[in-house]
Specification:
3 strands; elongated; alpha+beta; 2 helices; 3-stranded antiparallel sheet
Length: 86
């Protein structure tokens, strides 16, 4: 599955998102993430933990719940297909 477009319900900023599980979400911003008003309000430096947006997280969760974003399915190798490091 490829990344899917989505707009934040709060500010309308666009992202590409891929959901692998409830705990794993990959996001690619289509503009500077610092332009998000909620991130800008809490951001105090590069890599700051405040560089998150709960509104965007809720938008993604809602999109998954309404089947607007489909969770990617990863098939892991089994048996002899598992890569060996030796």
């Amino acid at each position: 599955m490829a990344m899917q477009p989505l707009n934040c319900d709060t500010c309308g900023r666009g992202i590409l998102v891929e959901k692998f599980s409830a705990a794993h979400t990959s996001i690619q911003w289509l503009s500077d993430a610092g332009d998000c008003p909620l991130i800008a309000a809490g951001h105090h430096g590069y890599g700051d933990v405040a560089r998150t947006c709960e509104a965007l997280r809720r938008t993604i969760d809602k999109a998954v719940a309404h089947d607007e974003i489909v969770e990617s399915q990863i098939e892991l190798p089994v048996g002899a297909a598992i890569p060996r490091l030796h």
